[in-house]
Amino acid sequence: MVLVITSLVTGTILEKIYGTAFAAAHIYHSVWFMCLLGVVAIFSLFFLIQKKLYLRWTTCLMHAAMLFIIAGIIVTTFTSQSGTLEVRECAPASTFTAQDSTVYQLPFSVELKNFEVTYYPGTRTPQDYTSEVVFHSKEGTAHEAHISMNNIAKHKGYRFYQAGYVQSEKVLLTVAHDPWGITLTYIGYALLFLSFIVFFFDKQSRFKELLAKVPRQAAMVMLIALPLVASVMPSYAAEGAKPRTLPKESAQQMGKLYVYYNDRVCPLNTLAKDFTTKLYGAPTYKGLTSEQVFSGWIFYFTDWRKEPMFKIKGDVVRKTLGIDGKYASFADFTDPIGKYRLETVLDTMGFRNPLRSKFLAADEKYNLILMLYGGELLKIFPISDSTGALSWCSQSDPLPLSLDENEYIFIRQHMSYSQELVLTRDFAMFNTLMQKTHDYQMQKAKDSLPSAFKTKMEILYNKITVGRFMAMLCIMIGLLFFAYALVCFGGKRPYSRWMKMLGVVLLCLLSAYLLCLFVVRWCVAGHIPMSNGYETMLFLALCMAVLGLLFSRRHPIFVSGGLLLAGFALLVAMMGGANPSVTHLMPVLASPLLCMHVAVIMTAYALLAFIMLNGLAALGLAGGSKLLKKSLADEALERLQLISQLMLYPAVFLLAIGVFIGAIWANVSWGTYWSWDPKEVWALITLLVYALPLHDRIVTQFNKPLFFHCYMVMAFLSVLFTYFGVNFFLGGLHSYA
Fold first, then answer.
1. Nearest-CA neighbor of 359 among 374, 340, 375?
2. Cα separations in angstroms, 627 against 1, 32, 481, 632
């Protein structure tokens, strides 16, 4: 198993350096690697017989499932066929080309009957790709089929998937032919899932044996490493005098307008929030709402151009702009004669220069203001052309000649009239204008607009997201509970019932808040929010809080663990500054398997994070054993190991189920249940790393508490690399995750 893990790690590195084809040829699809998997299968079978595990049918069923899965991998590698088929109307095709340029012959031909791209209402963002094809057999019979994303067509053992298109004239289909490998693998998945369920109810299972010991244990102690949180605490510019802006009510009325932003139609409130957060690093500025900040830049530019609200990272960038603190004004980006200070630097700096990203981040903020005044950001006018196609325009965009004269004047003069009302401080008429503009949008866009309920939910979501403040609050409160636990442990005092109740209440409030945030985002997006890094970290924080709450019923010390882990998960989600915008799903992600895959994986990661914290607690106790009685420290290590082992079984089983759900999803979406993508490989590596301690009756080192805890702390590095490292360093099909 160690050789398999090492080979998989090597494969991901080689793929990054030399490409996918090289890694597949020399590692994943090589004869020696298949032989290595075969050796693992043979030794597993030998072990089952030697240890007479066939008498314990749940364990036997579990290992038999793994044998089926390994057999499926080997059969798929040597017998499957896959490639790309080009189909056109009135031009039947009967051959497809593999990635290595091998041409395969189909026992029938495929003809395109119709192809259509479906867009999200009111946008040009693809929602789905649909192909109507006809299979022509050699006997002269024809069979029609419908192919779209996550909806495959099957014909005579071949599976066809929507892959792409070229201007609706040529459609690309992925062809997969692997009847035996998929059958063996799916049998393995089914047996493994069944064995997992039965395992927890088997009276002879290791889990039941460990669970029987828990009620006899006294109070536990979880030692959590003190994080250095000062460096990540939010810092904001001094308030000082506020620049002019719209009254809060008028800005709020403007925020209710619809705008085409980030490939979707949403309330202008969302654009204002992202705009403010992008510039300043927070959704408010000097007590002003994001809508007031956004409207202030539109109507009071002379005031706002001197405001130090552009958060600049990097001493070199600050020096180039000539500022001393962390914040620059719009005026700081140009010298006294109006020349852009960053232009020469960006033109002469190499693309591989590590400082380039910091200059580009500052340049992006400057250009955001230029986009606002160029009209690119404020696309609030829905216009239909002569064909009836709807598009969203700003005041400065070219307008169709077929546009009604009155509508043309309304669009061209809208912002000028708004500016006049603001300068004359006629905010009552300004509010009326915004309401009429909203009515105009409702009349012209009609069904392409989000519902009134979705709009209210999105504005609510923008209000209840509190950024890093909530994350830091959770971490600090968790540290206080941790300190209290140390005092109780050092003084051999019982854990206070009132502190336990307070911890439970705090975890309940945190869980309710995160659940509310998750549900509201779900209502806004129209799909389960688990499709990007922010959403999965939000769900992970919810899992941490709920699990901490459940564990605290028996062991109150888990209150600090739940608060700390939820806080760190939220902090990671907010590290990028603004929350990622709620965008339409990529067509391939519009699958019910998405929810199951991410939810199961995130729950497993949450359990593994608790195990890691248990390991840190044990290492802290071992390091401080000179201050405590050795017998007391050893007893605490054993108790911590027991709890970790209890959590390890469901964690590993959930991780395995999540990986296999992902494999089924990949088979439905891409035509192969396993493509050796870096994220897939590292998920498998993590699964194997954590599966090893379950075999403590074979590898007896895992029975030693100190070794077990050291291993669990180090093993969590594989989780971190699977979730973060692959995205940042390796890329692949899961780069959006």
1. 340
2. 39, 53, 21, 11
The verdict on 251 and 396 lying in the same domain is yes
Decide if 185 is inside a domain.
Answer: no
Q: Which amino acid is at 586?
A: M
Contact at 8 Å (CB) between 656 and 189? no
Q: Structural domain tally of the chain?
A: 5
Same domain flag for 430 and 456: no
The predicted-structure confidence for 375-395, as pLDDT tens digits, reads as follows 778 889 998 876 777 888 888
pLDDT digits (tens, 9 = 90+) for 86-111: 888 888 888 888 877 888 888 898 88
**Cβ-contact 16, 729 below 8 angstroms:** yes
Task: Please provide the distance, in angstroms rounded to a whole number, between the alpha carbons at the two ends of the chain.
Answer: 28
Tell me which of 63-77, 124-138, 407-421 is least confident: 124-138
Q: What is the pLDDT of residues 183-241, one digit of tens each?
A: 888 898 888 888 888 887 777 777 767 766 654 333 333 333 333 333 333 444 445 57
Tokens of residue 600, six digits: 């199961």
**Residues 420 and 509 reside in one and the same domain:** no
Contact at 8 Å (CB) between 177 and 80? Answer: yes
Cα 491 to Cα 540: distance, rounded to the nearest angstrom: 34
* Cα 416 to Cα 413: distance, rounded to the nearest angstrom: 5
Q: 321 and 355: one domain?
A: yes
Q: How far apart are CA 124 and CA 714, in angstroms?
A: 46
Phi, psi torsion values for 169, nearest 5 degrees: -95, -35
Domain termination site, one of 161, 177, 193: 177
Q: What is the DSSP string of 381-438?
A: EEEE-TT--EEEE-TTS---TTS-HHHHHHHHHHHHHHHHHHHTT-HHHHHHHHHHHH
Q: What Rg value do the Cα atoms of the chain yield, rounded?
A: 30
Residue pair 517/573 in contact (Cβ under 8 Å)? The answer is: no
Q: Would you call 155 helix, strand, or coil by DSSP?
A: strand
Co-location of 510 and 619 in the same domain: no
**Rounded distance between C-alpha atoms, residue 686 and residue 428, angstroms:** 61
Q: What value does the mean pLDDT of the chain take?
A: 80
d(CA 410, CA 429): 16
Exposure letters 173-210 (e unless 16+ CB within 10 A, then b): bbbbbbeebbebbbbbbebbbebbeebeeeeebbbeeb
Our CA angle for 43, 45, 46, nearest 5°, is: 60
Residues of the domain holding 128: 81-177
Stretch (H or E) spanning 38: helix 31-50
For every residue of 673-728, DSSP letters joined together read: S----HHHHHHHHHHHHHHGGGGTTTSGGGGSHHHHHHHHHHHHHHHHIIIIIIII
- 342 vs 346: CA distance, rounded Å: 6
Out of 406, 428, 444, a domain closes at 444
